[in-house]
Amino acid sequence: MEVPSSWIDTWNNPRIFPFIIPFLQCLIYYALVLLVHVGIFKLNSIFTPIWLRPILSDFFCTITSCTISFQHGILRFYYGNTTYVLMSGFMAFLFRNIFKDSAPSVPANVLKYMKEVISFSDLLLRVFTQIFAIPAIALVVHMIWLLEIMPEHTQQLSQRTCASDLNVAVAMGFLIEGGSIALETWLSQSRITIYDSVDSCLKLFTGPIMVVLGIHHTGMYMNPTLASVMKFGCKGTTPWQHVLVYWLAPILGCILGVKIFNYHQKRLASSTVDVSWTDSMRNENGDKFKRFPRRKLKGRSTTRKR
């Protein structure tokens, strides 16, 4: 029997618990990334000037989100779409509670601007910060791969070429990426059920489900920064096509999602029946009764003749 020469050989041996080992390796990757970035996030909230904190929070949140997404592909390869959706939803839950108001992507900041949470100048500053996060993400991922937690990390280190994930026409890719962001933006603001906990839980999985549905067409990144880190400059897509599909489409899709939600809210508000009050209609305590507007019936008057 061959004796492993190091702990890495033992850890990566496929004959030892072949089903559970990759999952444990993925968990170690996730835990390592989260612990490091949570520590940095806490230091940022303590030592960074107040005016700079939200900018750096978006910067670190974007790095964390994209670094974790690199591992999602490996998890999906081993355990399928269901495990990927569940893990992505769980990570979204952690992000919501750990990073709170930080935006992990450019569309998230566009949504803040559309909801008048941040100004346009603040939006531009945050977007430029997330663009500058692209080389930082590549560096962080490369450093983690050097730990050789999984055999796939070693393979990625030796890879020198890459191919585009855009397997449809540019126009169709634009519609897929933009439409998915529009749908997710609309659903994130809408109320799916009357129960708050169920509503929040369902919204955690809308993004991962759309990724599964569109991953074979465009890669369904739904995050311009992540798409640029992984596939910018790869064979099969020119730079302007990449910007059009993975940057412009999500931004416009987010704006469209907000517009659809606002339009839907206005329609609901306009269809609400107004309640009129009369001073002559009171109960025993002197409180007014509600009187709903009379509806006019065909061929008959609703008022009583005196």
Automatic annotation (TrEMBL):
SUPFAM superfamilies: Aquaporin-like. The chain crosses the membrane at residues 16-38, 50-71, 77-95, 123-146, 166-183, 204-223, 243-261. Keywords: Membrane, Transmembrane, Transmembrane helix. It is a multi-pass membrane protein. The keyword Transmembrane helix applies. InterPro entries: AQP11/12_channel, Aquaporin-like. The keyword Transmembrane helix applies. One of its GO terms (cellular component) is membrane. It is found in: Membrane. One of its GO terms (molecular function) is channel activity. It comes from the Eukaryota. PANTHER family: AQUAPORIN (PTHR21191:SF16). This is Aquaporin-11. It comes from Octopus sinensis.
